[in-house]
Specification:
The complex is a heterotrimer of chains A (287), B (243) and C (308). With 287 residues, chain A is mainly α. Chain A has a domain of 199 residues. Chain A is 75% helix and 3% strand. In chain A, strands 1-2 form a two-stranded antiparallel sheet. The longest helix of chain A is centred in the first third of the chain and has 30 residues. Chain A starts with a helix and ends in an 11-residue tail after the last helix. With 243 residues, chain B is α/β, with parallel strands linked by helices. Chain B has nine helices and ten strands. A six-stranded mixed sheet of chain B has the order 6-7-8-3-9-10, sandwiched between helices. Chain C is mostly helical and 308 residues long. Chain C has a two-stranded antiparallel ribbon. In chain C, helix 12 packs parallel to helix 15. The longest helix of chain C has 27 residues. The chains are: A mainly alpha (287), B alpha/beta (243), C mainly alpha (308). At the A-C interface, helix 4, helix 9 and helix 11 of A face helix 5, helix 6, helix 12 and helix 14 of C.
Chain lengths: 287, 243, 308
């Protein structure tokens, strides 16, 4: 039971990261390999603010959200739109965006290393709390609650607003969306920016209970990608469920076998998905 | 040449895309040396049927057999090796290769496998055959639309296919080009090739096809000579609508 | 159909001969730069032979290189095998690993493949560390041989020549032709009878083979193999960036990227030692945005404009 609870809590944060990537890949069609670095940036910001001013990361969260949104929008406009323009087809755009974001990820790692080169962690709401018969850290619980709130908000936005409808339309088919009068470029930029915002916020939340360093971004990118594919590209609901499953599997492996094998277990899941259901649990199209 | 024994057997072939039935229990045979026309209104399932025969799509149920080879569950490249060649509705030639190489591509891996000088000479003879002999040195980008179609045709012929699939090969041509195109396919027919044509151009259907199969909404609604099917009331209704 | 004629072969012989003589003329710093150049030339050329025509971006070089180095280390330290035995075994293991990865990922579109290879080095490193910590006790593997830098240089030269020879043969072969067609249009490739999945897997296996061979050959330079060092994602990245800089559509393209990049890298590590990762990222972005077809692409554009 411990495993399930701690797995779910972890999965909540993973779900947020995956939702961010899902928006960027599923809608804007950008395979953003720098996603993990954005997460670490958010975490680093929260750490820095907390250790210098003592301000709660839950407050920094809002600043990170705004900066994450604006920054991602800028990155999309400056770096990614030229690639969209020059790509003859979807396949080439994928290759180009992989290479470009791969380069960006290295750049961001370099920047972060020069800002803070060691591991960083801080103690925030680290007290134990009794929950459903097991003990969990309060910070994990709070992070989970925030993830649920934000995820829920995102879900409502996508399903109940006009803007969200446009986003979902572009996820299904950019050509068809363009034909019904949706400004695909603007919606893609919006989706990319919201994706960045959500990822940055996830970073803040994760920083409250995990020790990070500048180079660990790639592992988060990997896990986010695995979750997005497992759930089905473009499907938010799928990402959430896949994230919870991954959270529980990792928790189980860490407790029952060895904490050093969490990445390997994520890979194993990925392998199984590729072998048996590449379109993911809820996916309509294979990527 | 008079048609011989049937070589391609399409039996109760159905293709579903989720809830949509694109091809519904279609059956027909294609005889050797025959030109079979697959016609019907837009969206009726003709191209999907072509894709099922070429292997681009896999049938949900039913069977397609060519000369004893089961095509239905085979992989796309296996269909080619069993002797199916095709042209595409939107011409797909290979921009990174030369004209010769585009044709050679069809003759190396598929039904009849050649290599080296043999295939180069064979490719050049095919380029002559389709009327591109004087364009051999040019780059693929500089070809006109009809020349691109000729190139794709040459590539399809390079595999010496048992069945040649032409998917709206005559589409988008001006009247002069259309005449040339119909003559070219006519000459293939005189050579005795087995061809399945998907076409909208009625002149071509009438002058080229030995038999026709008419598909509407995924179902076969008529089969017979062009004269027979084009005067069939059900066919006329399908094309022009009720009333 | 064939991409090349005998000229490259004829030119290659004197070039290799000249390169073989190099260690007799230089030593120390410049020799190690030369080793570095050969190592990356072999790795990037082998990489480009696969990723160039298929457009599947393989980020797996670091993983295979690590397999090579690690197997040499563990074979020699833990199992008392000779260096030469491990030099044979390591590439075979890597080739099998590449085959398995290829069979699972290459029948799907490129994205799955990239993602899988992205974390591969990291994942293998974790797995290896875990196995080591829990079952093998030792953390360090010693590779002690009598080989000098010059010997390693010559071995790398032989491997690089082999990669080029392989590339040249590939260009004249049916498999090479199949890959060119595949890279242009995979559906058409299948329709002309090419088993595209098989072609991709076979070629991917060669990248595993060569990367592991290189990793095994340079293992003695480290003396002490640590998983963290030898399974390096940064290496995958460097290989890609050098190949892109040179141009991935010609056999000798990556070589034209390795040489300037190596020199640039030396400059960066001297003058900006704390900003190397950042500089790498910037360099990569500059290449992707401004020189997408590499030096070769620029040269060819220049020549075409001269002709017009």
């Amino acid at each position: 039971m411990d495993i399930v609870i701690s797995g779910l809590l972890l999965g909540g944060s993973y779900a947020l990261i995956a939702m961010g990537l899902n928006l960027q890949y599923g809608v804007a069609r950008i395979m953003n390999l720098a996603n993990g670095e954005l997460l670490v940036l958010g975490a680093l910001a929260a750490f820095w603010v907390f250790t210098t001013t003592g301000m709660s990361p839950l407050v920094t969260l809002f600043a990170v959200a705004i900066l994450g949104f604006a920054g991602s929008w800028a990155v999309y406009r400056v770096f990614l739109v030229p690639l969209v323009r020059r790509s003859a087809n979807q396949g080439q755009l994928e290759v180009d965006s992989i290479l470009a974001t791969f380069g960006m990820s290295f750049f961001l790692v370099g920047v972060m290393v020069s800002i803070h080169s060691e591991y960083f962690t801080y103690s925030f709401l680290a007290s134990p709390v009794a929950l459903l018969g097991t003990t969990v850290a309060l910070n994990r619980l709070v992070a989970f609650c925030f993830a649920v709130l934000i995820g829920g908000g995102l879900y409502l936005w996508l399903n109940r607003t006009r803007a969200g409808l446009a986003v979902r339309a572009v996820a299904v088919s950019p050509e068809a969306a363009g034909l019904v009068g949706i400004n695909v470029d603007r919606v893609s930029a919006l989706a990319f920016a919201v994706g960045g915002m959500v990822t940055g916020v996830a970073g803040v939340l994760v920083s409250t209970f995990i020790t990070l360093d500048a180079s660990v971004g790639v592992i988060f990118t990997m896990k986010a990608l695995i979750i997005v594919i497992m759930g089905g590209v473009g499907d938010i609901r799928g990402s959430i469920i896949a994230a919870l499953i991954l959270g529980m599997v990792e928790s189980a492996v860490a407790t029952l076998i060895d904490p050093g094998l969490t990445l390997a277990s994520a890979y194993l899941i990925f392998l199984l998905i590729l072998l048996f259901r590449p379109q993911g649990l809820f996916g309509r199209r294979a990527a | 040449m008079t048609p011989g024994e049937p070589v391609l057997f399409v039996r109760d072939v159905t293709k579903r895309f989720g809830g949509l039935v694109a091809v519904d229990a279609v059956s027909f045979d294609v005889r050797e040396h025959e030109v079979m026309g697959l016609i019907g209104p837009n969206g009726s399932g003709k191209s999907t049927t072509m894709n099922l025969i070429s292997g681009a799509l896999k049938a949900t149920s039913g069977s397609i057999v060519l000369n004893g080879h089961e095509l239905t569950r085979a992989k796309t490249f296996e269909n080619a090796r069993f002797g199916v060649s095709r042209t595409f509705q939107l011409v797909r030639i290979l921009p990174g290769l030369s004209l010769s190489e585009n044709v050679i591509a069809g003759g190396v891996f598929g039904h009849k496998r050649r290599w080296g000088r043999e295939v180069t000479e064979f490719a050049e003879s095919l380029l002559e055959r389709v009327g591109l002999a004087d364009k051999i040195g040019l780059s693929v980008d500089s070809l006109t639309y009809i020349d691109q179609k000729r190139l794709e045709l040459a590539r399809a012929l390079a595999g010496e296919p048992e069945v040649l699939l032409l998917d709206e090969w005559l589409a988008g041509l001006n009247p002069t080009e259309l005449r040339t195109g119909i003559d070219l396919i006519g000459s293939l027919r005189s050579e005795g090739r087995t061809i399945i044509l998907v076409e909208h151009v009625m002149d071509a259907i009438r002058s080229l096809c030995d038999r026709c199969v008419v598909i509407n909404s995924g179902r076969k609604i008529a089969e017979g000579t062009p004269v027979e099917v084009l005067s069939d009331a059900a066919v006329i209704r399908a094309y022009l609508g009720e009333g | 159909m064939t991409q090349s004629n005998l000229l490259p072969l004829v030119l290659g012989v004197p070039i290799v001969a000249a390169a073989a003589v190099l260690p007799l003329l230089v030593d120390g710093y410049w020799l190690s730069v030369a080793v570095y150049v050969l190592m990356y030339t072999a790795l990037s050329t082998s990489w480009a032979l696969f990723s160039g025509p298929t457009r599947y971006i393989a980020l797996s070089t670091g993983a295979f290189f690590g397999v090579g180095g690690y197997l040499v280390g563990t074979g020699m330290s833990d199992y008392e095998q000779s260096y030469w035995t491990m030099l044979v075994i390591a590439p075979i293991v890597a080739t099998i690993l590449a085959a398995l990865i290829g069979l699972v990922t290459l029948r799907l579109s490129g994205v799955y493949f990239v993602i899988f290879t992205l974390g591969l080095a990291e994942m293998i490193r974790n797995l290896v560390s875990w196995v080591q910590n829990n079952f093998l006790g030792s953390r360090g593997l010693y590779v002690l041989t009598d080989l000098t830098e010059v010997h390693i240089y010559w071995m790398l030269l032989a491997i690089t020549a082999a990669v080029f020879l392989f590339g040249w043969l590939l260009g004249r072969s049916r498999l090479g032709f199949a890959l060119r067609i595949l890279g242009n249009d995979e559906q058409v490739a299948q329709h002309v009878g090419i088993d595209t999945a098989q072609a991709k897997v076979i070629l991917f296996m060669t990248t595993g083979f060569f990367a592991a061979l290189v990793g095994a050959v340079v293992a003695p330079r480290y003396y002490y193999i640590e998983p963290n060092v030898v399974f390096s994602p940064e290496l995958s990245f460097l290989v890609v960036i050098m190949a892109l800089l040179g141009g991935i559509h010609r056999l000798w393209g990556p070589l034209l990227g390795v040489i300037p990049f190596t020199l640039l890298w030396e400059v960066i590590t001297i003058y900006l030692p704390n900003a190397t990762t950042m500089a790498l990222g910037i360099a990569f972005l500059l290449i992707v945005y401004f020189i997408p077809h590499g030096v070769v692409g620029l040269a060819e554009k220049f020549l075409k404009r001269g002709e017009a």
